[in-house]
Amino acid sequence: MRKGFQVCTCDRLTVVNTHLSANRDDDWSSGNRYTAVAQAELAEISAVLATIDGPVVVTGDFNLPRQSCALSQFITSNGLTDAMAGDPRPTYRPSLWPDAPALDHVLFRGLTATADLVFQDIELSDHYGVAARLETP
């Protein structure tokens, strides 16, 4: 499966929306075969982020938990901040996957952002919704 991302710039804000490949092993260690896939996909996004000067939001289903090495390296190397850093709640419905991780993220730089889970009581997807509030300088 080939996954991708979309870039949209409106006024001074650029939003990158992605849906990365799933990790079918549920093993996000650096040596796992899917980690190399995630790192390659994140490298493509990083190449685009390197060309963006203004405020940027990178969001979507990363299929990577918050504590994964691949996501942590991506955040650090691109100067991003996680709008839900420290939030232990899963974004994948626990009724469908016991001990589900947070796979959906709102990452940003050059602005202020907060995020929270929505649609937890309505089953519209296998993931909860993530609503973000963005404020540009």
Number of helices: 2
CATH class: Alpha Beta
Shape: globular
Q: Give me the strand/helix succession.
A: EEHEHEEEE
Task: Tell me which CATH architecture applies here.
Answer: 4-Layer Sandwich
Please summarize what this structure is:
With 137 residues, this protein is of the alpha+beta class. Helices cover 19% and strands 31% of the residues.
Task: Please give a structural write-up.
This protein has 137 residues and is of the alpha+beta class. It has one domain: Endonuclease/exonuclease/phosphatase (Deoxyribonuclease I, Chain A). It is 19% helix and 31% strand. It contains two helices and seven strands, in the order E-E-H-E-H-E-E-E-E. The strands form two sheets. Strands 1-2-3-5-4 form a five-stranded mixed beta sheet, covered by helices on one side. The chain is globular and about 40 Å long. The model has no long low-confidence stretch (mean pLDDT 93).
Summarize the SSE layout with pairings.
Layout: E1 4-10, E2 13-19, H1 33-49, E3 56-61, H2 69-77, E4 81-82, E5 104-109, E6 112-118, E7 129-135
Parallel strand pairs: 2-3
Antiparallel strand pairs: 1-2, 3-5, 4-5, 6-7
Helix pairs in contact: 1-2
Which terms would index this structure?
single chain; 137 residues; alpha+beta; Deoxyribonuclease I, Chain A; 5-stranded mixed beta sheet; 2 helices; 19% helix
